[in-house]
Structure formats: structure tokens, C-alpha cells
Amino acid sequence: MAIKILLADDHQLVREGLATLLGDDPNIEIVGQAKDGKEAIENAKKLKPDILIMDIGMPVFNGIEATEILKKEIPEMKVIGLTLHAERNFVKGMLEAGAYGYLFKTCAYEELILAINTVNSGNKYFSNEITEILVNEYIGKKKEVEEIDTPLSDREQEVLKLLAEGKSNNEIAKLLFVSAKTIGTHKQHIYEKLGLESAVDLVKYAIKKGIISL
């Protein structure tokens, strides 16, 4: 059975060019076209395609908005983003909206066919450029987490909790059976490791991490 495809792009020349190219494949059936996000949603509901090839920069509803709506209303239909937008926020937006694939309009015909077959089989497909963006995004987030969440020692975590509860260095020293000077050293290390500048910052951090509650 041929793969039923709906094309959504605000440029008629692009839509017709894709329809001509893909229509030559015996395993593909172009069931319709849409010139904007609103029409893509309406036609998808009416024509029930297997795959919707979606541009991002379209009027009324953009590709991200249309994909998000269709993911809820026709979850079995799969969306492939085909666009010129390489910015990370567009890639992230389409994937979070539920797209199964993402390619650039500069891709080769063979790659588009590969993406269609891959997505139709239930797997996701991203071009090499998109994969690189996703990997860089992951690495960037990992580094950010490592920088922010520098682990404290068990004793420093104890001191952090007690400081956040409003106890003084002397009070903490008595509770932990150490000198006030030792608590002062722990406090300094906590501030340095977590990048804190004030007691207010320390309390905010403790609340955010669930160490204390209001």
C-alpha cells in the first residue's frame, strides 16, 4: 500500500515541485497540499495522510503550532519538518511538538525518500546537521548542569540545610560537635561550589532543590 502524504508549504512552487518529485515514486501517493498551518490541519483531518511534510515558517499557524495541534487530534499521523530553519529553537520546537523527522530543504531527493520510509516504519529520522544540533544541545545542557550542581560533601550538605534553616555558625557548631571556625570553612566552600553570594541565595537554592520548604 502506498504511503499517503500531505504537503504543507506556503510557497506554491515548493509544494508543486515536491508533489512532482515524490509522485514519481510508486510507493508514495500525494493526497493533498496546504498553503498554511490552518489549511494543513483542516486537510489532515479530512484526508488522513500517513505523513505530513511540514514547513515551519507559514502563515496563520506556523509548522510548530500546527504539529502540536495535530499531534493531539491525529496522534497516529507522523510529521516531518522540511525547512530552511537551522536555529536550535526551531528544531527543539518541532521535536517537542511531536515531529518524527526534521530535514533541510537543501537535502537530496534520496534522503527525503529515506526519511519518509523511516518515519513511516515508526522510527524517527533527522539529517546529519540536525543530529549535530541535538548532540550539541545535549552536551551544552550536561555541562550547564555539571557547573550548577557541583556536588557537596555529606557534611557540607548538612551545614547547607542548617544554614538555610536560619541557624548561626555557633549553633551549627554545637549541633555537629565541631568548632565555629570549621563551620565557617564549610560555609565558604558551599558558597564557592554553588556560586552563591549571599544568605538569600543560599535559602533560594535550598528551596529550589527541596532541601527545605517554606
Features:
single chain, 214 residues, alpha/beta, Rossmann fold, Arc Repressor Mutant, subunit A, six-stranded parallel sheet, 6 strands
Give an account of the 3D structure:
The chain is of the alpha/beta class and 214 residues long. The chain has helices at residues 12-23, 37-47, 63-73, 88-97, 109-120, 128-148, 154-164, 169-176, 180-194, 199-208; strands spanning 3-8, 28-34, 51-54, 78-83, 101-104, 125-126. The protein folds into 2 domains: 3-141, 3-Layer(aba) Sandwich (Rossmann fold), CATH 3.40.50.2300; 154-208, Winged helix-like DNA-binding domain superfamily/Winged helix DNA-binding domain (Arc Repressor Mutant, subunit A, Orthogonal Bundle), CATH 1.10.10. Strands 2-1-3-4-5-6 form a 6-stranded parallel sheet, with helices on both faces. α4 (88-97) links the parallel β4 (78-83) and β5 (101-104). α7 (154-164) crosses α9, α7 (154-164) packs across α10 and α8 (169-176) packs across α9 (180-194). The model has no long low-confidence stretch (mean pLDDT 88).
**From the 3D coordinates, which CATH architecture of the largest domain would you assign?**
3-Layer(aba) Sandwich
Strand residues, percent: 5-15%
Percentage of residues assigned to helices: 55-70%
> Based on CA inertia axes, which overall geometry fits?
rod-shaped
